[in-house]
Amino acid sequence: MVLIIQCSVKNPAEFKQWSKDRASKYVYKLKEKNSINYEWHLSADGAEATLLELFIDSDSMMVRLANHGASPIASEVFEHVDITSVLCLGNAKPDAIDTLTAWGAKFHVHHCGYNRGEIVTPH
Questions:
Q1: What are phi and psi for residue 15, nearest 5 degrees?
Q2: Residue 91 CB neighbours (<10 A)
Q3: Domains within the chain, CATH numbers bracketed
Q4: Dist. CA 88–CA 105, nearest whole Å
Q5: Residue 123 pLDDT > 80, yes or no?
Q6: Does position 117 have pLDDT exceeding 80, yes or no?
Q7: What's the mean per-residue pLDDT of the chain?
């Protein structure tokens, strides 16, 4: 599962500090099972941010969303950003669809391809 959240940033300097020193560290320390990735990406001018999260499956994404809702980070997010779009890639279960639909999410189901846990070098 891939969750891509696009945001407009209210104050780039404050957001950079909060996302690096508060949000990312908080989420990392949760050690959520089957959570693969939590990354913030910024536009060159810092006015836009993208949160990229990867999970083993829909259930592990729901653990992340539940933990987010119960965390102090949840109330802080909107001090720093406005969410402009949410895209969920993968085979989301109905509970994930219900939760993310409230955020205006779009959903794309997995069609084909693969994800490797290791780098493959040519022979």
A1: -65, -45
A2: 13
A3: 2-85 (3.30.70.100)
A4: 7
A5: no
A6: no
A7: 92
